[in-house]
Amino acid sequence: MSVLVGKQAPDFTAVAVQEDRVIDQYKLSSLKGKHVVLFFYPLDFTFVCPTELHAFAEKQAEFTKRGVEVVAVSVDSHFSHLAWLRTPKLKGGIEGVKYPIVSDINKTISRDYDVLVEGRGIAYRGLFLIDKQGIVRHQVVNDLPLGRSVDEALRMVEALQFFEANGEVCPANWRKGEKSMKASQKGLEEFFGK
Question: Which CATH number does 13-146 carry?
């Protein structure tokens, strides 16, 4: 498993769907200058996956308020994504999800982010927080049956943005408004490369 933290997020150009629209040339690099939560899920029309996509949709306003773009990726085709988006929630669909869902039908994006389950052709539940310069600042990868915490993703966004704005580091379980830790500029540069 590769650790991408501190490295440039692998760029990609792929077909994506957003609501009822197909985007033929969706580029991650087009989001440079914004924070991005890029998350992978195994397959459309499965069990845990719709709970995660709905959970991100329910918090999308919170991400948007913080200037964060949410982008989902799976190995399904854009046709499957469209069908899933058109399926009501009560029937296992994700109707109402508004953020882009990228088709990684060739599995190159999943491979570049090192979340591809070799031999199965699907992705683990990887999540990558990317800063405005396109650098991965946080990553977490869950096994297939383990849904992730959208609240934790939001907390990590707040911690990153607090660090960027104040140069102060955030201790364990830090929440917005809680005490942070000051570090000298020299200490920050030596330890964090900032």
Answer: 3.40.30.10
